[in-house]
Amino acid sequence: MNMNNQMEESEASILHTYNRFPVVFDHGEGVHLYDSEGKKYLDFAAGIAVNSLGYHYPGYDEALKEQIDKLTHISNLYYNEPMTEAGAKLVNASRMDKAFFTNSGTEAIEGALKAAKKYAYIRDGHADHEIIAMNHSFHGRSIGALSVTGNAHYREPFEPLMGGVKFADFNDLDSVKAQITDKTCAIIMETVQGEGGIYPAEREFLEGVRALCDEKDIILILDEIQCGMGRTGYYFAWQAYGVQPDIMTCAKALGCGVPVGAFVLNKKVAQASLKPGDHGTTYGGNPFACAAVSKVFDIYERDMILTHVQELTPYLEKKLDELVAKHECAAARRGMGFMQGIVIQGRPVGEVVKKALEKKLLVISAGSDVLRIVPPLVITKADIDEMAEILDECLA
Ligand SMILES: *Cc1c(COP(=O)(O)O)cnc(C)c1O
User: Fold this and answer.
1) CATH 3.40.640.10 domain extents, the chain
2) Is 224 a known ligand-binding residue?
3) What is the distance of C-alpha 51 from the center of its chain?
4) Which of 37, 130, 203, 393 could crosslink 183 through cysteines, CB 3.0-4.6 Å?
């Protein structure tokens, strides 16, 4: 079947919630994808910042196959070894206290919100607390996650959503202060805003929010779903600032392609929030997903993935800065590590993404006018050169 027929057949049965690009991918190898007609693409999108190890990274597939042969699911009524190992590695990498595994980023957000609410409920002896979230944030599509997502267009059709949510401006400490009341139990934000257009938190802002939270016993939830797992050159972006969250959410690259997320609590919240019966999941933490998480951490350590990102970041930034300097429509670059955005002006960013696809380079957009570059973390200088060459043609 040719690609057009495959796309038509897909639209016949799959609910049309995405305007997909006209390509059917068949397999991947390294940092390349191949469509069903055998054409090769350089992947600087990584399945939206998920495939940090690219495709068929040495040791990864083998670990998954081994786990399939043993056990894929057992429920949370029993213990399983991969969950124990994955939990220990996640807690160790974050220097936090306890982890709860979920199936997605959205579910990690749900759990984080519940943990914060429960903490305040135990402390105050009553519910009805408020949460402060950021404008232009993205935390997911479920009702709870949508309630703290700072995008009116995503939220409006589904209102009324969860009550008690107030929005402040990211990187504006005064606007956060203005939303704090006696009822505030949590402040939630991405350490680096992703979907909203690749905005890293400013140091003074993050430190200021942390100080506010300490002063008023407010839970700081940092969403590391996109910017975590090495993307900024640190396991978690907040480690670059030395500002610790009370709760952190992970997903995307946590399993490098296997659907898995987690929320991770510091000791204070872990000891005084969710208790048996308060939260649960059938699939979450299943041995198959956790075997992936466990192997991902092993590979990151063995092959020094964080060091690689740190070493190559200046080169990636230099190549992108050259494009910004050269092309009128590329207005600015911002980002951290391998999470970079180029602001596109005077033409739709979608047009640049489409052109790149035609030239066999995968990049994506963020916000209304940002070209998002979130490659696998294992790219080489040569891959960066090739990306820059193609983008150079696309921006011309
Ligand atoms: C992708 C994303 C989510 C949602 O994760 P899903 O796995 O799609 O549910 C939440 N927060 C951030 C920052 C994300 O990038």
Assistant:
1) 71-302
2) yes
3) 11
4) 130
Distance CA 230, CA 375 (A): 12
CATH 3.50.30.10 fits 71-302, yes or no: no
Where b means 16+ CB within 10 Å and e means fewer, 155-169 reads: beeeeeeeebbbbbb
Residue with tokens 């057009």, as numbered in its chain: 4
Closest CA to 123 of 212, 184, 208, 189: 184
pTM: 0.98
- Tokens standing for 247? 């709760």
Kindly report, residue by residue over 163-208, the tens digit of the pLDDT: 999 999 999 999 999 999 999 999 999 999 999 999 999 999 999 9
- The protein residue with its alpha carbon nearest to ligand 1, atom 10, reads 139
| Model pLDDT for residues 345-388, shown as the tens digit of each residue | 999 999 999 999 999 999 999 999 999 999 999 999 999 999 99
Q: Is 17 annotated as a binding residue?
A: no
Contacts of 386-389 with C-beta under 8 Å, sequence gap 24+, read 386/42, 386/361, 387/42, 387/44, 387/319, 387/361, 387/363, 388/319, 388/320, 388/322, 388/323
Pocket of ligand 1 (CB under 6 A): 104-106, 109, 138-140, 190, 194-195, 223, 225-226, 251-252
Q: What is the CATH number of domain 3-57+304-395?
A: 3.90.1150.10
The helix (H) or strand (E) run that includes residue 87 is helix 81-94
User: Which of 102, 139, 222 best tests ligand 1's pocket when mutated (most atoms within 8 Å of CB)?
Assistant: 139
Q: How far is residue 235's CA from residue 61's CA, in Å, rounded to a whole number?
A: 22
Q: CATH 3.90.1150.10 in the chain: give the residue spans.
A: 3-57+304-395
Give yes or no for a contact between 71 and 240, defined as CB atoms under 8 angstroms apart: no
The full DSSP string for 211-237 is HHHHHHTPEEEEE-TTTTTTTTSSSSG
Closest to 117 measured CA to CA, from 129, 101, 134, 100 = 129
- Tell me the percentage of the chain whose pLDDT exceeds 90: 99
Residue 21, Cβ density class (10 Å: 0-12 exposed, 13-18 middle, ≥19 buried): middle
